[in-house]
Amino acid sequence: MEKLAKGLTLGGLSGVLSGWLILFINMLTGVFVLEMSFGENLLTFGIGGGLFGLVCGGLMAVVHEKLPIKSFPVKAVVIFGFVWVLFRLAGIVLSGLEPHRFHGDIGQSLQGFAFAIILGGMFGLFWVRGKKIV
Amino acid sequence: MKAIEEIKEVSFQNHLLVTVVLVGLLFAVSVVLFGVDSVMAGAHDTFHDFRHSIGMPCH
To answer: Any residues with CB less than 8 A from the CB of A120 and at least 6 apart, and which?
Structure first.
């Protein structure tokens, strides 16, 4: 239970930070032309990133001991990337079911995968650093 | 014997709680990532920019 609480806390925190980071990265790359104001995006990217981080952090807390990888940050990157890929695959299924509503974009997908990797790395570093402090 | 049963019960409750929390979060993030308006009114428009920026398919 303690590990789940730690996973959710660090996942939520790193998710909010990564959400904001990907907002700035998107503003630099211009992969998607943002339609909402900066203030609105700061809020929605924080909430969206935080929720994604909560799911991955909770999952990490449950499965990390079963993974055959030594380094914790590498484990986090693998799991976070895997979760993003699962959602992307679900998106592909939705595109097949409702092609007029859901369209994928390669540039946005690459940026999204980078988001998951950054988030996983950040979560892994927070977890390891937290362990050292405690 | 009774102590073992109590431990098992607590362990089962913990696992159940973890599962409920994770499934609930998974559901919430799915609503955000796919903009399911039928679950949360305005989910599609509210998280439109976020969804595109992290590569999820959208119109």
So the answer is: A56, A73, A76, A77, A78, A79, A80, A81
Residue B41 lies in a domain: yes
- Convert the pLDDT of each residue in B38-54 to its tens digit: 888 888 899 999 999 99
**Cβ distance of B50 and A101 shorter than 8 Å:** no
Determine the residue of chain B that is closest to A95 in CA distance. Answer: B57
Cα–Cα distance between B35 and B30 in angstroms, integer?
8
Chain A hits for B26, Cβ within 8 Å: 55
Cα separation, A23 vs A56, in Å, equals: 19
* Amino acid in position B35: G
Contact B50 A105 (CB under 8 A): no
Domain residues of chain A, as ranges? Answer: 2-133
Decide if pLDDT at A131 tops 90. no
Provide the domain limits for residue B33: 21-59
Q: Could you give the number of structural domains in chain B?
A: 1
| A134 confidence band (pLDDT: 50, 70, 90) | very low
Phi, psi of B13 (to 5 degrees): -65, -40
- Which residue in the block uniquely carries the two structure tokens 């992307």? A88
- Between chain A and chain B, how many beta carbons pairs sit less than 8 Å apart? 108
How many angstroms separate the CA atoms of A93 and A19, rounded?
A: 25
Query: Is residue B1 assigned to a domain?
Result: no
